[in-house]
Task: structure prediction
Amino acid sequence: MEELIRHIGIVRSVQGDSALVEITQSSACSACKAKSMCMSSESQVKQMNVVMQEPLQVGDQVEVEVRERLAWKAVLLAYILPFIVMLAIIAVLDFATDWSEAVVGTLSLCGIALYYIGLSVFKHRLQKQFTFTARKL
Result:
């Protein structure tokens, strides 16, 4: 069976077969009893659109799930591939031209910008693949 990543959240709005769910992501030390004395504890509130597995209402506490494989795919698309694009541009331009490091660095950053623009063009297609589901607790 495929691994799932789960978070607990609260439904903030419902529209059709999807809902806007608010989850609170806590750092590892947020449950520590000494967190009031330590400045490293932090938490973030995030909102995400999810597909409802059953009818939900505003205020319901839900469990949001996503397949772990999709989380790795997101890491690949958001972090690893842009890094590879940057390194490839630097390698090609550095060996094929005698341009300065500043020019090569600027062009590699432009390449990453073009990569992210390309991702945004396919945003709706990617959103269909990256679906979060919610079910009532």
User: Anything to note?
Assistant: The first strand starts at residue 4 and ends at 15. The two ends are 22 Å apart (CA to CA). The chain has two domains: 4-67+131-136, 69-129.
